[in-house]
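ARCHIVE RECORD
Type: protein–small molecule complex
Small molecule: zinc ion
Source of inputs: curated submission
Record status: active
Notes field left blank by submitter.
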Amino acid sequence: MRPTFHPHLINGSTGDPVLFVDCLFEHRALLFDLGDIQALPPRKLMRISHVFVTHAHMDHFIGFDWLLRILLGREKDLQLFGPPGFLDQVECKLRAYTWNLVHNYVSDFALHVSEVDGNGAGRRASFRCHSAFRRVDETGVICTDNVLLRESVMQVRCALLDHGGIPCLAYALQEQAHVNVWKNRLQELGLPLGAWLRDMKQAVLRNEPEQWQIKVAWRESDTQRERLVSLAELKPALRIVPGQKIAYVTDVAWHKDNVKRIVDLARDADLLYIEAVFMQRDAGHGQRKFHLTAHQAGEIARLRTLAASSRCIFRRAMSEKTGLCCAPKWRRHLAELQ
Ligand SMILES: [Zn+2]
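STRUCTURE (tokenized, with ligand):
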């Protein structure tokens, strides 16, 4: 089974936190946290459609300027999410530059920024290149069940955590379901692999009726061929299984309320990224800095409410072994990715 999400900590487990998640078949990527991103080539940065920032401490947000630098002048709408206060923080970053020449760009690059309070409410505003990145279209938003991104293929949900008196968001990326295609059964139907599979998978995830028609186009001996097939015809070649889930948690104080929220968010995650800044013998220091120790992160990961087969990746682990077991369905591919 080929996973849809291909996550990668671009600065390893000890550098600035940035989780790049490439989305197979979607031709785009998501970013969790925005620390130093210069290790990512521009072609990958240009794939990013959504950025989810946990909080604006420097190591989580310093990459904003570089992302802006790469995307400036391009035809792109970038969505950013962050905790309360995030709109002001983005606006302050943008105000630090002089924008008297940006009207010369043909494209009107736009940032659409949302700050959410973790209780289903928030505010949203846009900043457009041709308007010298002035804050416009500000409005309140409702995030039912704290879902920030809801699409037929995937959703992203957040939880508000406490990082020593400042709000810090944790995120869970969930594939709605995973549609497997039996290649040999497609061959029996006389159908090739191709881009049409993406349309088909989206139709399945949208719960379209069985008579829904998919256009299959391919080239054969220099001849362009085309055929309409219904979902009912395709059914024998498909198998729908639970989707992939990735949780991302960092910079949180160790206390009961945080732990409960993390467990709720990360329940049944195939992969949990969680910070482990201090060794357990430095737990007092961790408490003062509002970070988890490796042991505390492990305790959260081992809570019974997490899937027994889930895998945990500790960020900045200084002690304890990393890499618990991995759900068999993803094991091979994740092993290749890490
Ligand atoms: Zn922090």
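CURATOR ANNOTATION: The mean pLDDT is 85.
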